[in-house]
């Protein structure tokens, strides 16, 4: 791979990865210091230690604006994937209880959910993971330091304890994996004082009650989904698009289902202010972006889900000339996760253009550890990374959206196969399956290589995970047709798909 030299950039050649061992790092305290103890940083540090490197990892959690704090493990473990999926499961169980009556279970007429019981169980599990991470670091001989890290130069990290005590560490290489935190719209009066974010909702001792979720990212919709599912009055306020960056048709199906499920949506609206009333309720004033009219309503909680900001400001990167994207604040990185300063690397959510997904950070961190230890030259492949949005009707996808496929290949250069199907478990329960849909996007010519696969329905993540490997192997439409399905499953509908959008035929699946 040719070196890229642009301004201060100095991306290293892959074939020049140097082999460092402990015997060569006598000048430094460590072979590797990792700043950030999230999923990616922990994976990188443990992998490096397994390869014989002397490693230290620094992690420090600044409390949220509401004072919420947590332990080792980063966003995913503490305030992201893990508690989110567990609360999503709580909501799914509520739906399953309603379905149970149709299947013959004698259920009480009224059911209620206890937030405190759920929250305590989820928080206890998270704490067990925090402890598990500390034990793993100790077992793998990684030095864990509960310090807030910043960089003094390309080989020196300054750690600051809660009490203000300073520790200086030197390392052959430094890796930044500090991730991001939720943004507050500080320009809106009352937003910070009276609002919460995803950093807080999973650690609430009491139910958030009637909740306004502001934003329409996957974080916003997932939170709104499980809040609705456990019986809370929930509204989502959307400025423009829901699930920006995802396939537009699929995003519409997700929000349509949520509306039918009981989540209210206020479209084309922006909040103006949040005021706390004498009753303790929060009065939110917002305006319709199309008519300009103002509206008001009261809520018990306002949850801001308006994006995330990278944790770069306190790292001292400006003094080292580490290049950042001026708009996003993220670190500009090369294909090998190198920054514009030699010996400083960055990956995960903090890297410009990288997917903000835990598994990609873990994989990228492990591969980086191998390269820095001189054990490999393999790079992270960021193409066709699968993901799932855990909304009430789950949405899983891998590869290109229909819009992106059209942009790359032209409308006439792609063939879109699709199907509306009804999960068997929906039938007896008499549940609406109008939004259960599959879309396979292929190149129109040649062997019809699959460029994107989208699925809404139960267990979408489990379905898409398997198909994502097929895309890595270059799957084509003919491969799909040659695959025998497992009956009766939702996933089998993917391999049975045969109607194209171009044909104009009804894509509704009939029969069993």
Class based on secondary structure composition and strand pairing = alpha/beta
Overall residue-averaged pLDDT value: 94
Beta strands, count = 21
How many H/I helices? 15
Specify the biggest β-sheet.
7 strands, mixed
Stretches with pLDDT under 50, minimum 5 residues: 1-24
Summarize the structure.
The chain has 512 residues and is of the alpha/beta class.
Tags for this entry?
disordered N terminus, 21 strands, 512 residues, 7-stranded mixed sheet, globular
Characterize the structure shown.
There is one protein chain. The chain is an alpha/beta fold and 512 residues long. The chain is 30% helix and 21% strand. The chain has 15 helices and 21 strands. The strands form 5 sheets. Strands 1, 2, 3, 4, 5, 6 and 16 form a 7-stranded mixed sheet that branches. It has a 5-stranded antiparallel sheet with strand order 17-18-21-20-19, with helices on both faces. A hairpin with a 5-residue loop joins strand 17 (387-389) and strand 18 (395-399). Helix 3 runs antiparallel to helix 4 (115-139) and helix 3 packs parallel to helix 7. The longest helix is centred in the N-terminal third of the chain and has 25 residues, at 115-139. The protein starts with 29 loop residues before the first strand and ends in a 17-residue tail after the last helix. Residues 1-24 have low confidence and may be disordered.
Task: Give a topology summary.
Blueprint (H helix, E strand, L loop, with lengths): L29 E6 L3 H12 L4 E4 L15 H6 L1 H20 L14 H25 L3 E3 L2 E6 L2 E5 L5 E11 L3 E3 L8 H4 L3 H4 L9 E4 L3 H12 L4 E4 L10 H14 L2 E3 L2 E8 L5 E7 L5 E6 L1 E4 L3 E3 L6 H4 L23 E3 L11 H15 L14 E3 L5 E5 L2 H8 L4 E7 L3 H5 L8 E7 L6 E7 L3 H13 L4 H6 L9 H4 L17
Parallel strand pairs: 1-2, 1-6, 2-3, 6-16, 8-9, 8-14, 9-10
Antiparallel strand pairs: 4-5, 5-6, 7-15, 11-12, 12-13, 17-18, 18-21, 19-20, 20-21
């Amino acid at each position: 791979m040719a070196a890229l030299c642009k301004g201060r950039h100095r991306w290293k050649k892959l074939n020049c990865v140097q082999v460092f061992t402990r015997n060569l790092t006598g000048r430094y305290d460590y072979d590797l210091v990792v700043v950030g103890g999230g999923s990616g940083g922990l994976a990188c540090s443990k992998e490096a230690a397994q390869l014989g490197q002397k490693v230290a990892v620094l992690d420090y959690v600044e409390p949220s604006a509401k004072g919420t704090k947590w332990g080792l493990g980063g966003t995913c473990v503490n305030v992201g994937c893990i508690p989110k999926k567990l609360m999503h499961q709580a909501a799914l169980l509520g739906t399953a209880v309603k379905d149970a009556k149709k299947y013959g279970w004698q259920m009480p007429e009224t059911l209620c959910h206890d937030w405190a019981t759920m929250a305590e169980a989820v928080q206890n599990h998270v704490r067990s993971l925090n402890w598990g991470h500390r034990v793993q670091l100790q077992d793998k001989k990684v030095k864990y330091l509960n310090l807030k890290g910043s960089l003094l130069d390309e080989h020196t990290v300054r750690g600051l304890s809660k009490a203000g005590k300073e520790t200086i560490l030197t390392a052959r290489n430094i890796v930044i994996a500090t991730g991001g935190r939720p943004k507050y719209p500080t320009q809106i009066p009352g937003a910070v004082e009276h609002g919460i974010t995803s950093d807080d909702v999973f650690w609430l001792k009491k139910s958030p009650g009637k909740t306004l979720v502001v934003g329409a990212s996957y974080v916003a919709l997932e939170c709104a989904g499980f809040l609705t599912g456990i019986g809370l009055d929930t509204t989502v306020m959307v400025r423009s698009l829901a699930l920006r960056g995802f396939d537009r048709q699929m995003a519409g199906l997700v929000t349509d289902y949520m509306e039918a499920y009981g989540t209210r949506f206020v479209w084309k609206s922006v909040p103006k202010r949040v005021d706390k009333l004498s009753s303790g309720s929060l009065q939110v004033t917002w305006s319709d972006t199309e008519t300009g009219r103002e509206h008001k309503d009261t809520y018990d909680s306002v949850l801001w889900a308006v994006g995330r900001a990278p944790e770069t400001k306190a790292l001292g990167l400006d003094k080292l000339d580490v290049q950042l994207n001026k708009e996003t604040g993220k670190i500009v990185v090369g294909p090998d996760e190198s920054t514009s300063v030699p010996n400083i690397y960055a990956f995960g959510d903090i890297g410009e253009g990288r997917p903000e997904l835990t598994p990609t950070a873990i994989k990228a961190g492990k591969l980086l550890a191998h390269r820095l230890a001189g054990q490999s030259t393999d790079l992270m492949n960021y193409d066709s990374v699968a993901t799932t949005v855990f909304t009430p009707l789950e949405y899983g996808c891998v590869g290109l959206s229909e819009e992106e496929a059209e942009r790359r290949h032209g409308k006439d250069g792609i063939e879109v196969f699709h199907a509306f199907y009804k999960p068997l478990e929906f039938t007896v329960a008499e549940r609406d399956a109008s939004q259960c849909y599959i879309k396979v996007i292929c190149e129109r010519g040649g062997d019809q290589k699959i460029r994107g696969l989208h699925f809404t329905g139960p267990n979408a993540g489990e379905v898409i995970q398997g198909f994502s490997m097929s895309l890595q192997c270059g799957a084509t439409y003919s491969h799909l047709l040659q695959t025998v399905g497992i009956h009766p499953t939702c996933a089998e509908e993917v391999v049975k798909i045969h109607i194209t959008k171009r044909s104009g035929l009804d894509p509704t699946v009939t029969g069993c």
